[in-house]
Request: fold
Amino acid sequence: MGKEPHAKSGLFKRDSKQFNPIAFLSQPGAGRSVTQSKRKAVIYAQGEPVRGVLYLLEGVVKLSVVSRAGKEGTISVLGTGEFFGECSLIDRKTRLATATAVTDCKISLIETEAMKRLLYQEHSFSEFFMKHLIARTKRIEENLIDQLFNSSERRLARVLLMLTRFSSKGGASWIHVPRMSQEVLAGLIGTTRSRVSFFMNKFRKKGYIRYNGGLQVNRGRLGAVLNE
Reply:
C-alpha cells in the first residue's frame, strides 16, 4: 500500500495579502505539504484512509480501480494543475481508487479540515476549486458520450490527443506524450489491448503517430480522425 505525502499539523492562517491559489499550493505550511513522487510510485492506494485533497503541481497521475474479482481498470489520467482525492471533502473514510505517478510528480496535499477552512475563508480559492470541478464534470460527460457513440478507433485518437496537453512542447507538430502501456490505453477507452495495438499500428502507418525516443503524436493529423 502506498503512502500519501506527509502533511504538517496546524491551523490554516489567512494571509492578509492578495491570495494566489497556485502560489499557496506550491508552498508547505499549516495543514499542507509538498512532496515529490517518482514515476510508477503509488501516491495513495484504493481502500486506504483518506487524509486530504491533492493538487498536481507537476507531472501526470493515473487513477485506477480494482474490482473484487481482481480486475484493474484505469478511470482517469490527470495532468499538471488538477486536483484529485476530493472525496475526502464528503466525509468518505477510504480512497475509491489508486493514484499512481505516470511521470515524476510534484504534489501538494491539503489536509481535509484545512481544505474546508480554505474553501470557506478564501473566495478566490473557492472559485479556483469550483472551476476545476466544472471542468472535471465536463470531461466526464465528454468521456461518457465518447463511450456511447464513438468507435474504439476514435476513442483512442481522442485519448492520445488528450495526452498531448500534458507535454511542455505545446507548439511543436510532433508532441511527446507520457509513457503509457497499451493495457492502460485499453482501459481508458473500454476495449482490448489487441485492438489498441491494431489501431496504434494503423495510426503509425498513416503518419498520425511515431516512435522517436518515445511515443509522439502529430496533433494536426490525428485530430483529423475526429473530424471524419
In short: The chain has seven helices and eleven strands. The first helix runs from residue 21 to 25.
